[in-house]
Each structure stands twice: as structure tokens, then as C-alpha cells.
# Entry
Amino acid sequence: MFRYALKRVIRSYRLFIALTLGVLIATTFFASMLMAADIQSQKALTQALDGVDYDARMVATETTWNLTQYDEIEQLVEDMPEVSALDRYTKFSFNYNASAGQSFDVYGLEETSTVWNSLSFLNGSSTLQENETLVVASSVNASLLSIGQIVTVPITYFTSDSPFPQSINLNLTVAGFCDVSEQTAQLLNPQQTLNLGFIEIPIGNWREYDLMLVDWGETVEPILDWYLQKENATALAAATGYLIQLDRDYLINPYDIGASSTNIQDALSKIEDRTAIYNAKTSNLVGAVLSMLSFASTILILAYVSLAAPVIFMSWYSSTMLSDVSYNLRRREFGLLQTKGFGPKSIKSMLRLEGFIIGIIGGTAGLFAGTYIAHVIGDVAIDSAFTSILANPINMIFTIVFGVVLSYWSIRGPSDRASKLDPLDALKQYIYVEEQREYKRLLPLIAFALGSYKLIVWILGIDMNVLLGTGFSSNFIVLIAVLLWTPVDAFLNFAGPIAFLYGSTKILLRGSQRFQIAVVQTGKRFFGQFGNLATRNVKRNPSRNAALVFVVALIVAYGIFSVGSLSSEQDMRLRTDQYNVGSDVNALFAPGEDTSDYLESLEDIEGVEFTTTEYQISFSTTRGSLASRAIDPESWLETAFYEDIWFSEPSIEDVMSEFTGEKIILPITISRQLELGIGNMVTLLMPTGPSYQMEIVSLIGYSSPLEAIVGQIAGDFAFGGNYPAYIPFDFLNDTGFLDYAEPHVLMKTAQGTNGTLVEQEILQLFPSAASTDSATTRATEREASTFEMGATRARWLGVSFAIVLAIIGTGLIVSLTLKEKEYETALLSVRGFTNSQVLKVLVAEIMVMTLFSLVLGIGTGFIWLFGDTSNQSQNAQALVRPQMVLDPLTIGLMCLIVLAIVVSAILPILRTSRFDEKKIHVLRE
Amino acid sequence: MKSYIETKDLVKVFKLGNVEVQALRGLSIQIEKGEMVSVIGPSGSGKTTLLNIIGGLTRATAGQTWVVSRDITNSSNADLGLLRQRVVGHIFQTLNLIPTLTAYENVELPMLAIKMPAADRKKRVTELLATVGLTMRMNHKPDELSGGEKQRVAIVSALANDPPILICDEPTGDLDQATGSKIVQFLHRVNKEMGKTIVMVTHDPAIARQTDRIYRIMDGKIISVQKPSESEESNAAMRVEMYRDRLNETESEIVSLELSYKKQKISAGTFAERWNNLKETKKFLDSELLRMGL
# Structure
């Protein structure tokens, strides 16, 4: 059986290649998504761990280790295969000036340790002798110390005899200053937390530290030696411990962050178990990094796979259709097999075995192709395809199994029908099985209803979490309904668009025949009677034509959606950057600094066209704090980044023409909470002094269509959003709060200006600038961020696959549909139809249906895109919201997909319409 | 003056994979207007290829062809299309009808190609289907018709554009004897009453004997032409003469083939295939001459 199936696959390779292509496209996309998510996670993990010097910290609890214990622990832990290095450290704390609350931590670090090697020596000595210390320059109280100064550090120890606490003084000479990286600072001054059992609350600020460093061997070892020798000493007021480096190659699989996290935790538990007798407590320093990455990686995989879902669905559908056609082409073979003693079960098994072989081939090929495509299109760094694939066997197995399942599922229906075929029917001659069943109606209706519900919810901007949440406080029946509906709603967040696509195309298919008739009637002069002939064929083979229309419409819709969402996302990023910067470039100065004189100089920088200063300050209303921006209306309008849709009527230009004095542009959320509208007064509470009654001249913030409708019917209604208020500059100046506001100088630059270079020039011109920012810098930084770019790369993959599907999918489906009609077209030629007449028949039949698919697909694609954009918009809390972008590039890419489909459909038609002598053989088979 | 249908020294070479197959090797026939001739011969002898050339479905590799006394040897695809449209009607053993179309629509189909007005089409289709007694079945699709009915629809479909020539490739091959006889009777009516020239390939000697002339083909050549209407003696004398000529020709071809192979002018595969065919032909001719007592 297996041999026969294998021979069939090899010897009828053309047909099987066609069948494999459907599986291949799906598995390739699936694999590329998984691979891209995986490798990006791996890259992000490598990046993140590169910045972490130590994996664990071991500390002595309620005891102080002496030298002997240090040595014993070191020997014990170093022998463990999970550990690659240990660095000793000891910490003493002392009050430098108790009355002023100034204290320092003295860290004894080994001179050969990784942490020591990460120090940047600023001045003074870089090597320390006994009782010499380096002061960390970024310490809060570093300025209290100077090189050569002797600092007396009292070290407390406890004895078994009274007085129990005693101290010795350690005189440390300041040998120099050094700086530490943020990561080292965090290591030496970890974030303190309050552990409540179920949650850890951070306490204090780890950035506020006072650190002095000493050589452990030169300065700490003699103290510990002394402590060891001290007869009645029971404890030393010092924290003793180790910083541990684990063998990451051994424990961390960069492709499986979850498992790596477990491995690390297991290793630490093992260390803690072996060292428990020394009262050692081991804490994980990479756990948070791994957890964060594991979570981000899961989200990334989910995002990728949800993007892949439509492609997988389309590939499955195409494969099923191709299997159906291949089944028709092989009817006689099944008949012959039955005469040779093959029963229905054997035929079914054989076909499913073929499906299995196709799945294995498609899955394996898809795995490699997907990895390669992830590298080429997704810009995923891959050293070697084999390494990347073999490093994650789970993905490898998953992809191949996915290919097998897809292939098996596609061939299931046709294999059932083949096994039930009457042998006489199969053997007699070519019998066309005319399918009466057009389509199942119930499933598309349900899918359409669910998909439409989700899209409407998105388009109206309804937050179902909030809405369903309110159901819990209602009566019992509503509660049950909400409990039942919540998981469906959550599922529809992913499956909604596909359900809509599936349902709408299937339902609208009913119009395909009418459309075909209408086109043929319209083009009567061209099609003539051949159009009617095509109409008869369309009418009599509804199932096949419906499948053709459906799958092509799916491809078009997905293509439109992929391109549109990619453009929307890129546009969103650019606008968000500009919004966060305020304009193209931003320079922040110290509060109270008068920037009015700077503007002229800043405008002289090449590329800078307009400037304005936007003052940011926080006031409050009776509803809480209110982030406010004081602006000069005229220059702000020409410089700052804003969008007209942020503001309610009247237009922002009109508002700004009289924007002076006690006026405010109020966030829409607050206006609704306080039931205030334009023209009303709102009370602005100042940090000090009197409050002000501000006239609301405009509202700022996103208002979903539902909010607008409900607002009209039942008064103001808002789901939420976080928006700033705008007030006139003269108001801020007159009230005396100008000195408390942060002045942001915004600069609008000419197109193509490099904002990063402008930033550099600003810093040269005005060293007092606290910071600078630009859209260019943000874009560059984002490009370097693996996770941030992940979604965009996934969308690029989506666009690529949409084009591949458009070309290969459409080409294959039309080719095989025509292959099935080969006998009919040959007969038309024999009956005297010229090539152009056959072409007209096929165009009227196939191309008109393809045209219908295009219309249907484009319409559905735009609805899908609009719904998705609305969904993202609804979930966003900022002013900048996703929008549909139809720039020339987007339209060009959409047209390319449409063109690819038209060309892929027309080429097989042209080939089929040409008569040659080989075709007459089909009439004698 | 050329005959109504005439071929002269037709050669047709096919390429099957790497092997070249010579389907016709200098075949010449002459058929006059209004004749009904049959072509018989074993499988692979070149009967269908001859029909395809006459019917404008393919072109010969060498030689000349005249149909309705016009040279179609070098006709363009478009001209051959016109030939199929208006001059020649084709009937095959099976697969003559488009399954999605009704009997009526199948008959109407060729008329669409010549853009016949709808009213004329309707009249002609109805007449033609009435001629074969299928008026009541005109709205049935092929899978709702019996084998004989399907073939009758196929014949009237081939006659739809009133072509002067009908090419029938084993039209009764898929039918039982009784149904086959009815089809042949109808073809006789078409020939006699409608004046169509019919060229028919058949395996059935009984059917062949009902035609005006029988062409026997063997290995791509005509080995005999028999007129069933003439006396058996004159036919036999004519056959002996042709068999002898063909035998001599075959023997010399075998010698020449062996020489070519020895000189490595042809491949082993081509030699084996060709040599077997010639040996088969020789065996057949020898046995025929022996049967005739010669």
C-alpha cells in the first residue's frame, strides 16, 4: 500500500506538486512565523543577557561567613556543573554624617571579578592597596569626598561577652573615583521590595546610592581573618556573599525561554540545597529578564500565528479544492483499483497515505522555506538554517505535524468520496459529477454573524471588557449570559475577521451567478452567445465556482488587509514618534529657563523651519491631576505635531485665533465626567494659590462612533483615554507658574532633515539643554529593537505571502479547474470553435468569476482592515490612533496583488484556449 | 483534378518521450464526394492519425492533403478551425458531448461558433434531434441518456453546421451490436439522404462491409482497398497484387533497417520497435497470401 502510494506520488509528480504547494504555502508561512518569533525572542534574550553579568546572588542570612566558610562554599559550588564562576563580595554600611542622613555602603569586591572589570575609572588610582577605596562618582553624596581623604568606617561586631556589640574602625583612604554602569549600580544597590506574600512592592529608589569600593583581598580579607581569630566574636555587621555566574550554555536554550527559566531556577535550588548549612540564601538575578522575555515571546508568537491564521485557512481551503479536482481527474484509476480487488477502505487508506506523504514533504520543505523567508523578508538573523531549525525541535516537529494534519484534512473529503465511488461509473468513461450542493448555509451565516458582531463592536469603539464587566453586577441570568459570552468574545478578537471573511464571501457567493450574468449581458457585444454558454456552465457547477470565488476572494481580502495594516502600522509609528517628540525635534530645558532667546538660534540650524516652546506642567481639576501644555497659539500651530481630529468643533485654527487668557482645551474624558461642554467653565486647581475658572473652548480626545451616538442620545458618555489639556502661554505667564513648567522647544524641520544631527547641533549650541529628542532618533532606536520591530516584520511576511498566494494560489486553482475542463475545451475546438471563441467562453466563465472574487475580496478586505483599525483605535488610550492609510505605495501594493491575481488567472486561460493536437487525445481516453 | 478527399504520401511522426514513432509512412488515399468509406486495421496502424489529418485536428509531417478538393497541407490553425467549423464533423467512440449541457445545447454548440441566429439555431436543433428521434430527450443531459442516444446526439451535433464530410472514429465501438447497427443505419441515411461524405474507422468487418470501400491500414500504410460491392474474384486479385507489393516493400525495409542499425544510424529502441512492426506486417502478409493459397 505504502509503495503504491509512494509510486503514485513520485510518478504523478506534477499533480502532487500542485497538491503539495497548498500545504507548502501554509507550512512555510506557519514555520516562518514561528521561526521569526522564536529567533527574535532568542536575539532579544541574547541582547538582554549580554547586559547581565551575574545570574544569581548568594548571601549569608543571619550570619557572617568567615574565611574558612567562604572557602568551603566556594569549593562546594564551583564543583557543580551548572556554575561557571563565583565572585566574593562583602558589604559594610556606615553613617558618614548621621545627623545629615548621609551614609555609605562599602563594597569589598575581588579585583579579578567581572563586576570589578566593569568599573570605569574616572580619576585617581585604578588599583587599590590595603585600606584604599574608590568612590562611585554617581553616588548621591560623592561630592562629600575627595581623593586622599581618610574616611573612618566603624565596623560593628558582636561578642558572647558584654558589651555584646563592639566596633573596630577601618580607616579608608579615598584613592580615586570611578563610575558604574546602571546594571552594576542595580547589582550593588538592588531594588528593595516589601514582600506581602502574594505581591512584592518596590520600596525606595535604587538610583539613589552611596557606594565606596575596596579590594576584597587587600582590605576585607584581613578583617574576616581577624574576625575568624577573634575568640568570643559571634557575628560581624557585614553582608557576606557571592555573585554567581551560571553556565548559560548548559542551562539556557535561547529558543525555549520558558524551559531556560526553569533550568535556572532548578540550578539555583540545587545550589541553595547544597549551601543551606551555611545559612546561604540564593536569589535569581535573571528570573525577571527571562519572565519578561518569555511573556513577550508568547505574545509575539500569538501575534504571528494570528496573522498566519488566514493564510493557513486559505491554504487549507485551496488544498481541499485541489484535492477535489485531483479526485475527479483520477476517477478512472479508482475504478481500475476496485477491479483489482481494492476495497473502499484500501482506497481510502491509500489516498490518506498519499496525503500523509504530501504532508511530510510539504511540512519539511515548508520548515526550511519558512526559515529562509523569515530571514530574507522578516530580517531575522539566522546563521544557519539547519542550526536554527535543529535548535528548536519542538517547532520542527510542530511544523511538520501541522503540514501532515493540514494535508490529511484536505484529502479527507475527497478520499471518502473516492472510496464510495461505484466501480462501473468510474470505469465507463469520463462522467462529470455535477454537484448540486452549492454550499452549506448555516455555518457561513453563523460565521458572518459572529464576525460582523466583532467588527461592529470594533468600529463603534465598544470596549466589550467594560461592557461585559457591568453584566456581573446585574441579575443572575445576565451574569450567566456574560459568563458564556466572554470566552466567545475573547476568541472572536482573533477569529472575528476570519469568520467575517468566511461568512461574507460564502453568503455573497450567491450573487456570483447574477454577477456573471450581468457582466455577460453588459458585454454582450463581446461575449455574444459564448457568454451564455459560460453562464450555463457556471449555473450547473455552483459548488466548484463557489469554491473558486471564495478562495480567490479570500486571497484578495487578505492581501488588501495585509498591505493596509502594514501601512497603517508604519504610519502609526511615525505619528506616535512625532506626537511623543511634540514635533520633529524637541529640546528640553530646565524649568524656569527662558528659551525665548534660543528660538532664533535654533531656527538657524540647517533644516529647522519653525520653532515654538511648549511648557508642560501638571494642574488639576476636581477629577484629579491634569497634564497641561501651555502654548503660543500662532507658533504652536505651525510647529507642533497635531491632528485636526483630536479636537472637537470648531476647528483648531479657529480656536487658536483667540486662544488667550483663561481658556482651556479640555480632555473629552474630563468634560464628560464633569458634564461640561464647550462654552462652560471648568475649575483649574493650581498647586498653590487661587483656582481659576477656565472657559472651555474646545475638547481634545478620541470619541468613538458609539460614544458620539450615545452622547447625542443620553448625554455625555466616555470609555476613557489619557489626553493633555492645552492652555494659553500668557495664562501661565500671568499666573506666575512659568518658572515651574518644563520648557520644551519644539522644532519643525524640512522634509528629509536628519533629526539626530539637529539634536547634536542643539547640544553644541546649548549645553544647558537637559535632553533632546527627535522622531529620527526614535525611528533609529526602534529599528534596533528586536521586539518592537517584530510585529512590523510579521506584517511584511503577511504581505509577501499574500502576493505568493495571489500568484501561486490563484494560478493553481484556475489551472486545475481548467485541467478538469480540458475535455470540454478540446471538444469545443473539435466542434469548430476558434481559439478566440474558446477564450471568450473561458473568460466569460472563469475571469468573470475571478472579477467577482476581486470585487468581493476588495470589499471584504477593506471592511476587515477598517474593523481591525477601529479595534486597535479602541484599545489605544493615546491621542494618536491607528488610521487607514491609502498612500500611493499602499495603493500600489494593493493593485499589485490584484494584478497578480488577474495575471495568474488569465495565463492558464490563454494556454487552455489554444488548441493543439495533443489535446485531442483526451477525447479518446 | 484532385479527389474530394485525397492524401498523397502522408507521413506523420510523433515523438513519445525520446522515441520517435512513425504513425503514417507515405499513406495515400482517394475518396470521392458522397462516398462512405471505412478504414480498418489493427491498433496503432495509423487509422486515427489519418482521420485527424483529414479532419483538420492535426497536420502531417510530410505529404499532401486535400479536403473538398482544396489543399489543406499548409493551412494555418485558423483555417483548420474554419475547416472543423464548416466542412468536417467529428464523431468519436465516446466523450462526444459536454456533460453540463443538455442534448439540445450540445447540438446547438457548433452553431454558436458560426454565429447562427438564435431562431435558425432553434429550428435546426429541433429538426436534427427529431431526425434521430430524440425530440423527447432534448432537455436531458448526457448522463441521463443511453449510450445509443448519446451517440445519436453526437452525430447530429457533428451535423449541426451541415458539414459535407463526417469523420467517425469507431462510432460504434462503445455500443452493443444492436445499438451499433442502428447508428450505422443512421450514418447510411446521412450518407445517402443528406449526401455527406463519410470516413469511418471501425474494427467491425460487418460494419466495414456496409461501406462503399474498405481501406486496410497496416503499419502506417494502406495494404489493401476493397470494394464490397465488386465480385470477390476481382477483389481477391487486387488484394493479392497489393499484398505482394507490400510484402516486397516490407522485406526491403527490414533489410534497410538492419543495415541502418548495424551502422548505428538508429538507436536500439527505435530499431526494436520498427523491426517488430515490420516483422508483424510481414507475418500478416505471408499468412494472408498463404490463406489465399499462394
Q: What stands out?
A: The first strand of chain B starts at residue 5 and ends at 16. Residues 236-291 of chain B form one domain. The two ends of chain B are 37 Å apart (CA to CA).
